[in-house]
Design a protein that fits this description.
two-stranded parallel sheet; 4 helices; single chain; about 10% strand; about 90 residues; alpha+beta
């Protein structure tokens, strides 16, 4: 929730890696009044569709955008003890 409020107007959220198997919940009011958009990203499928050269190019662009602050990333940290054995 805090992350949503920090994002600002017209932000885009990308979820990647749903290994936690927990549903993502977003309060509608934050999305509506800040015009936010949420996307899912399935990296395995994307890799199948893109050449190694295209993957390298896109990765380079993302690194550049993150270095200049155009794209920001957040990571959710979980305690190791909270993980279950597979």
């Amino acid at each position: 929730m805090r992350m949503l409020r920090l994002a600002g107007k017209n932000a885009h959220f990308v979820t990647y890696g749903a290994m936690a198997k927990e549903a993502l919940t977003f309060p509608p009011s934050v999305f509506i009044f800040n015009n936010l958009t949420a996307h899912g990203f399935w990296q395995t499928e994307w890799y199948k569709q893109k050449s190694p050269e295209e993957r390298t190019r896109v990765t380079g662009e993302l690194v550049k955008y993150m270095a200049t602050g155009k794209v920001r990333g957040w990571t959710l940290l979980c305690a190791f003890a909270a993980w279950t054995k597979s």
